[in-house]
Amino acid sequence: MPRITDERREARRSEIVAAARRCFSRDGFHQTSMPDIAREAGMSAGAFYRYFPSKEDVILEIAGQAFGVMAGRIGAAGDDGRPPGVGDIVAAVVGPMGGDTITLPSGEVVPTAELARCGVQAWAELLRHESLRRRACAGFAAVRTGMADVLRQGQAGGAVDPDLDPDDGARVVMALLPGFILQKEAFGLDDVDGFVRAVHLLLDRAPSAGAPA
Fold first, then answer.
1. How far is Cα 150 from Cα 154, in angstroms, rounded to an integer?
2. How confident is the model at residue 157 (pLDDT cuts 50, 70, 90)?
3. What pairing do the DSSP bridges indicate for beta strands 109-111 and 101-103?
4. Backbone dihedral angles phi then psi of residue 157, each to the nearest 5 degrees
5. I want to staple 87 with a disulfide (CB 3.0 to 4.6 A). Which of 99, 114, 176, 200 is the partner?
6. C-alpha distances in angstroms, 60 versus 54, 93, 98, 176, 183?
7. Residue range 54-71, pLDDT digits in tens
8. Above 70 in pLDDT, residue 191?
9. Residue-level pLDDT at 2
10. Rounded to whole angstroms, how far apart are CA atoms 9 and 15?
């Protein structure tokens, strides 16, 4: 029997994760079994286990994709050459959430709603699975560090209050993002532009007296 190539193995893993996203988004984590995912991916349950030993491992993979999207978008806050403010960071991260699809760091294009719904469910799973919580903590720390760095850039350019502790500020911005996703997926509040504009008005540094607007 010919040996499977690394490229084919990686492609098959991506197909399984895509199938799992569809199942989890449609039916939820707890209503989806390993055989359900295997069937969605068009493979036997036995073959599935050669790629992922448990359902939790698939959840970890999808959670990693979500963190990867966030981490990859943070740096885009200063792409236009202006010092980035809080609203610019939020716009960079949540802006793509308004589209039908979103591009993962790997280049794979996936349905936005699938990834977002899986993300909402994964947060609840953090309270049940210590391994998932540890991985999520590592991802959270990496994203928070990136946000703090961008906030420091904003401070250097006068767009962020110099009295702000960047690490604390990053926590506030991180709190906004899951809130937006939950509002969008659970309550249908999907006005990205309105959300970002409100963040600018509420949190970005007001111009000093006498300074041009």
1. 6
2. very high
3. antiparallel
4. -95, 0
5. 200
6. 10, 21, 24, 22, 23
7. 888 898 899 888 888 888
8. yes
9. 52
10. 10
Unique residue bearing structure tokens 């980035």 = 84
Residue with tokens 């050669």: 50
CB 141 within 8 A of CB 131: no
CA–CA gap between residue 157 and residue 112 (Å, rounded) = 33
Asked if 76 contacts 95 with a C-beta cutoff of 8 angstroms, the reply is: no
* Dihedral angle over CA of 169, 173, 174, 176, nearest 10: 140
Cα torsion angle, 23, 24, 28, 29, sign:
positive
Q: Residue range 138-161: average pLDDT?
A: 92
State if pTM tops 0.85: no
Tokens describing residue 213: 């607007």
Helix (H) or strand (E) holding 90: helix 86-94
The tens digit of pLDDT for each residue in 118-128 reads 988 888 888 88
How far, in whole angstroms, is CA 24 from its chain's centroid?
A: 16
Question: From start to end of the chain, where are the E strands?
Answer: 101-103, 109-111
